[in-house]
Amino acid sequence: MSSSTILIRGAKGILTGLAGDAMRHDVATQGADIRVTGSTITAIGQLEPLPDEKVIDASGCIVMPGWVNTHHHLFQSLLKGIPAGINLPLLGWLTAVPVSYRRHFDHEAVLRLAARLGMVELLLSGCTTVADHQYHYYPGMPFDASAAVFDEAEDLGVRFVLARGGQTIKREVDRNAPPQCQPETLEQFLASVEKDVHRYHDPAADAMRRVVSAATTPTWSVPPEHLKPMAREARRLGIRLHSHLSETKDYITYCKEVHNCSPVEFVEQHEWLGEDVWFAHLVHLTPAEIQTLAATGTGMAHCPQSNCRLGSGVAPAPALMKAGGRVSLAVDGAASNEAADMYHEAHTAWMVHRAVGGADAISAEDVVRMGTFGGAQILGLDAVGTLEVGKAADIVVMPLNEPRQWGLHDPIIAPVVSGAARPSTVLCAGKIVVENGAIPGLDLEALKADADEAVATILKARAA
Ligand code: ZN
Prior knowledge:
Blueprint (H helix, E strand, L loop, with lengths): L4 E5 L3 E3 L8 E2 L1 H4 L2 E5 L2 E6 L8 E4 L3 E5 L1 E3 L20 H12 L6 H16 L3 E8 L10 H12 L2 E6 L21 H15 L8 E5 L10 H14 L2 E6 L3 H11 L3 H7 L7 E5 L5 H10 L2 E4 L1 H6 L7 H6 L3 E4 L12 H16 L6 H16 L15 E5 L14 H4 L7 E4 L2 E4 L9 H20 L1
Parallel strand pairs: 1-6, 2-7, 8-9, 9-10, 10-11, 11-12, 12-13, 13-14, 14-15
Antiparallel strand pairs: 1-4, 2-3, 4-5, 7-16, 16-17, 17-18
The site of zinc ion (ZN) has 7 residues, from loops.
């Protein structure tokens, strides 16, 4: 038994992901060591190494649960900073960037490379669970996009939730779009989701693979009459629902004009609220909508950097938390957030709410809570998101070896207040997925060369 255990020893501080005072484990009185057996945390305290045990020296380091990223579009990892969309708001940007560039991802190798790059960025920022809102599906698609992203996740050892997106109606932004933006029928969409559930979905609390039904937006990607069948089919299959909602003011205006209600009222009418549903953004919410989301347990994937980048606004995440609602943290696709880095996202969350809500609007602990436990709760991964005995060993060891982290009087808040960092060690399900600041077996230089080449190929195709 001893040979399969790992001892993370002597942390300077431990953030547990738990609520209130329990967020800060008292290393002085309760010990600073964490033992992992197989995929699980089996002891926390003052522990002596067992014979043959692998010991990871965490002295001088902050130890915390792996970040949980609840909304991403990994295929966009090769679409950063595209000049045509760099200063546009959501709708103009959607047309100029993700829609316009979809045809370039109609190759399994490019999608795989983008997914790998996105997950490498995340892993190197201490993220161990990734929910990817992958909506690159269309009738006659020549390769298996679900298999491609699951394979890449497995290769890197991260927990992967496929939010299987797509559309069953031609959207306004798709008017001059490539064939890759053509809609599926409702039957094609549902059959494909069910197939992915049978192939990949694991309902376990510590699952490495989950599937979610995730039409790209409830207002623009599907006709209203498809929403209930999608929700009911997801519940029949025992899977969750995810989509984008209330990202911009246009979204609110559209719902008012076309459906004569607010976006939250609209999805409520179509059975898209509940503990098994979460939405990305939710930037523009009325107090009544906040109450409805909290009362139904419907989750928010809070994407502050993407919302800043596109000028969408600042989501009322602290208000939803205060109302007892479920809030998680997410980077969104890299075409609208050039930094798919969870430390950076956490830092931004800590900053923007203070800018609009005052210096006590959100604490560093609140941000850690939403980025760890909050995300796991929303994804239904009940064994994930906290450092506790019996929970999954998704653990990040962050050394304080950057000058930006020096001089801190309360170093435990470094993962939030100091911005970008690089963990020395990351464990996911007890496996070492980052060691000495690097991903074992990954040639980072080769990945950079592949990314450069893919961007050059896309640029050449655009110029032709
Ligand atoms: Zn998104």
